[in-house]
Amino acid sequence: MNSSAFAFIISGVILNALAQLLLKAGTNALGGAIHLTRDNWFITGLKVATQWPIVLGLLCYGISLVVWILGLSRTDVTVAYPMLSLGYVIGALGAWMFLGEAISPQRMLAIGVIMLGVVLLARS
Questions:
Q1: InterPro entries, alphabetically (predicted)?
Q2: Which helix (H) or strand (E) holds 3?
Q3: Res. 31: pLDDT tops 80
Q4: How far apart are the first and last CA of the chain?
Q5: Are 18 and 93 in contact (CB under 8 A)?
Q6: What is the mean pLDDT of the chain?
Q7: Which residues, other chains included, contact 107 with Cβ-Cβ below 8 Å and sequence gap of 6+?
């Protein structure tokens, strides 16, 4: 994978993970679990749609899609697609740092295994 392909792929992964973190921050701002019923779907949808973290998260998703397509045009899917697993690492670390979520020793081990797999993939 050349440097431009890597830059697009990793940027897409980072933007996708950022989108997840922003969406979660937006749902946290709403006060927890979202429950849709026949009576509240419109007002709940309006509350969700007006949360800035959710709007920014959706924007990140859109940009990540464009960047991902640019990256795919420069490398094989067999290399690019497994790189998405880095999103789990970025997401977990971001949730720990910015959302106060816990990372157990078992999760740390899983993150290490994912990173090892990505390194092996990138070297192939």
A1: EamA_dom, EmrE-like, Small_drug/metabolite_transptr
A2: helix 3-29
A3: yes
A4: 10
A5: no
A6: 93
A7: 92
